[in-house]
């Protein structure tokens, strides 16, 4: 469990810098260039992610159960996950979805974490998905308090929305059909 927690701390700490020190990113990039920020940020993020993956795998070998979710919640979780991939795509594509939601990546993370907490009750699941849920809610609230960026403007047409929804649903289908089991070792069905 120590490896999982260490990974979460690294990953979420570096992703929380905009919450606790919003001016730091802009200052480092202005003084030393974009790569002076991106390279260490990426390195710490990747190290944290690698520790999360490794630590979660280790923790799953000796699961301690916090709660036993009813089987019906697995089906509800699949419904809660339905908008996750469209929201993830909408975070990077100019769309009405992005303009309406404001921060689709954070909303997707919240839904992803909630769905996994509905379907899983081991200590590792509660730490992993609970950690991401708490972080995403805090970051979302922080993001809503920041001035809106120009990227939140509503684009003309529906191409971005159609791409986000259709692409997201295709990725969702691929995950449910077998990619989740192949990557994680657990079928969502």
Q: Which short descriptors sum up this protein?
A:
single chain, 189 residues, mainly alpha, 2 domains, 10 helices, 77% helix, membrane, transmembrane helix, NnrU family protein
Number of E-type strands: 0
The structural class is: mainly alpha
Low-confidence sequence ranges: none
Helix content: over 70%
- CA-based gyration radius: 18 Å
* Termini separation: 27 Å
Task: Give the overall average pLDDT.
Answer: 89
Can you tell me the overall shape? globular
Instruction: Tell me the major beta sheet.
Output: none
Total tally of structural domains: 2
Q: Give the percentage of residues in beta strands.
A: under 5%
- SSE topology string: HHHHHHHHHH
Number of helices: 10
Task: Describe this structure as you would to a colleague.
By secondary structure, this protein is an all-alpha fold. The protein has 2 domains: 1-62; 64-189. It has 10 helices and no strands. The chain has helices at residues 2-15, 17-20, 22-32, 34-61, 72-81, 84-90, 96-101, 104-119, 123-145, 159-184. The longest helix has 28 residues, at 34-61. The radius of gyration is 18 Å and the shape is globular. The chain starts with a helix and ends in a 5-residue tail after the last helix. The model has no long low-confidence stretch (mean pLDDT 89).
